[in-house]
Every structure is written in C-alpha cells, then in structure tokens.
Amino acid sequence: MLSLAVLISGGGSNLKALLDAAADPDYPARIVAVFADTDAPGLAHAAAAGVPTAVVRPSDFPSRDAWGEALAEGIRATGAGLVVSAGLMRILPAGFVRAFSPRLINTHPALLPLYPGAHAVRDALAAGAVETGVTVHIIDEGVDTGPVLRQERVAVRAGESESELHERIKRVERPLLVDTVRDIATGALTLSAAEPEHTTTPYPHP
Ligand code: GAR
After folding, report:
1. What is the pLDDT of residues 96-153, one digit of tens each?
2. Which end of the chain has the smaller Cβ count within 10 Å, N or C?
3. Considering 49, 83, 100, which residue would you say is the last residue of a domain?
4. Residue 90 CA, ligand 1 centroid: distance in Å
5. Which domain holds residue 4?
6. Which residues of 34-50 are buried (b: 16+ CB within 10 A; e: fewer)?
C-alpha cells in the first residue's frame, strides 16, 4: 500500500477524488496527510475523511527555503512514500524538490511544455489554443518542467470562459490523477527522473 502526502492551496477537488478512490479497499494507495500553504477550503475534504491536515505558511518563515524545510520535515514525519502536489499554487524550493523527487508529482492544467505556471488555462485561451489538456508529471527544480508521466487532451470550445474550460479540464484531470497514482502504487508506472514514460490519449473528451 502506497501512502500519500497531498499538497493543496484551493478547493481540493483533485484531493477529494484521491480520497474517494482511496476509500475503496482495492485502491492501492492511502492518503496519510494533507498539507496546505494557506487556509485552503479543500482541507475540509481531508478532515471529513479523517485524514490529518496541516497548514504550513510561507509567511511564517524567514525564507522560501526555510518554509520548504519545515514542509519537508512534516511530510517525512508521515512516512509518505509519494508526495502529490494537487493544486498547490507555489513553486517548491530546490531543497524540497531534491529531498523527494522523483517521488514527487504534480498535476497541471495544460499539455506541458505548453502553458507552464500559475495561469495555464488563461494562457491557453489568450494564445487562441484549439486544444489544451492536463499533465501529471514528476516535479524537478524547474517550473513545470519535470518528466511527463501522463497527459490527456481537452478541446477548447469557442467562446468559453477560463472557469468553464478549467472545470472541463478538471473533469479529465481528476480520474487521470487517480489512475496515475494507482499505476505508481502498483508499479505499472515507474518513477524515474531520467526515463519518463509518455502516454497521450486522443480527444475528444467530455
Ligand atoms: C487543478 O486544475 C491543478 O491542475 C491546478 O490547480 C487546480 C486545483 O484544483 N494547478 C495549477 O495550476 C498548478 N500550476 P482543485 O483545488 O479543485 O484540485
């Protein structure tokens, strides 16, 4: 059984998808702790499932590195075998990345390497993209540059807003994240910084 520490900043719908999956005894991973960098509404999902939570705020530390060290210490204490950034809207310090990567993954609402950063959906719309998608990848020391584990495409609809498109991306993202974590837990997917596995499935998606 793979134990997960999940990092969030917001509503936590990806976290909720993992919690729901982990409620099935046949799912090979369990969430042992959820960490946030702020009072994220998504922490309520963890609390409802009886999973311990902690808020580790960057503003409580003298530097980003010190924040990363405190976060890393908290995660180590849980014994988690995989760290999942599921909507953490912060760049993790290099020391943190070195401590956990490649057993440190992120989900991102675009087809990386396109549209990295905090506004991926907005950037895709601004670029006039006809398709975008979601990427689950290993976190390295760059911003959304780590080896891609899984991707799925989402077609952009004419005239849709950032929030409409993001919601449709999330409908694809949640099961992709759940499936990717399952495959890591079973060993079907190997985490290696050197030899990423690329899997892209064709759209259309709902
Ligand atoms: C997700 O779409 C995730 O990919 C994105 O934030 C959303 C969180 O949704 N992360 C990033 O944009 C990171 N650059 P959620 O809180 O409902 O899971």
Report:
1. 999 999 999 999 999 999 999 999 999 999 999 999 999 999 999 999 999 999 999 9
2. C
3. 100
4. 11
5. 1-100
6. bbbbbebebbebbeebe
